[in-house]
Amino acid sequence: MIIQAMHYKLNGVAPLPHLGVIRVEGDDAAKFLHGQLTQDFSLLGLSDARLAGFCSAKGRMQASFIGFKRSPSEVLLVCQHDILAPTLKRLSMFVMRAKARLMDVTADYALFGLAGDALDLVAPGASPAWTKGDVGSASLINLYPADGVRRAIWLTPVAEAAPAGAPLSTADWNWSDVRSGIAMVSTPIVEAFVPQMLNYESVGGVNFKKGCYPGQEVVARSQFRGTLKRRAYLAHADAPMQAGDEVFQADDDSQPCGVVAQAAASPFGGFDAIVSMQVSAFEANAVHLGAANGALLTLKPAPYPLLADI
After folding, report:
1. DSSP readout, 147-213?
2. Is residue 18 located within the same domain as residue 151?
3. Is residue 308 part of a domain?
4. Do the domain assignments include residue 307?
5. For a tag site, which of 44, 59, 110, 159 has the least CB within 10 Å?
6. What letter would DSSP give residue 3?
């Protein structure tokens, strides 16, 4: 079974070496991103953040970002470091005449995850997800909670001191990411999902009112024609899981019914994961890891309401 998190497990400050940072700088920085990503960047304010996908022409996610402005003409995109180089190359192909310069600035910044009491020390009181605050030279980006515990990313120039707080392991932070129900695209799942297969439309990752972007027609058609047959759910297994692993229904070994999008070892034993799978497979509740006779998954709905099909 999936064990509910004990809040003390999510208190502290964790280093996030698995994340990278792309800087988009110039007069057209926000406008350029607005035309490439699934969220509205044209109205991005200095106190806002955006969860967004970068899709192929077929609507499949090549990357996902948490984006925010460090200054009026500078947007930073936080992503999984393992996809940063190819993603930067793809995005740069579309700059053309836009006044925007893209570069990898991961080495310029330190990133930490703040949870529970550590976040309360620097930003007391609740703050909605996808909002950004400035604390001295640091940017604080509020995320979705994990098991009711507040979480945020702290980004600061690399020469600055780390934020105060009890140490939290990167492994436990990664587990809290899974428990939040929001997966970020990494190498094993590049182009595996349209945004709705990871519930991005339900957690602020897709804006259906903005203009065109690569894959926009596919993403919109999936939503408005009521064809969402795959969703992301929480899962637990005693066996190890990792992104890209396939899952199968007990009565069908011929083809997978879903794919693990993100996984982490649970501090209480076993592994927890975000699994994108057929809605019918979730409802049948007999899903196994790797094969029809593999480790049984214990399934739970995502920890947030889903936007209804239109």
Report:
1. TTB-EEEEEEETTSPPPPS-B--HHHHHHHHHHHT-----GGGTTS--GGGGTGGGTT---TTS---
2. yes
3. no
4. no
5. 159
6. P
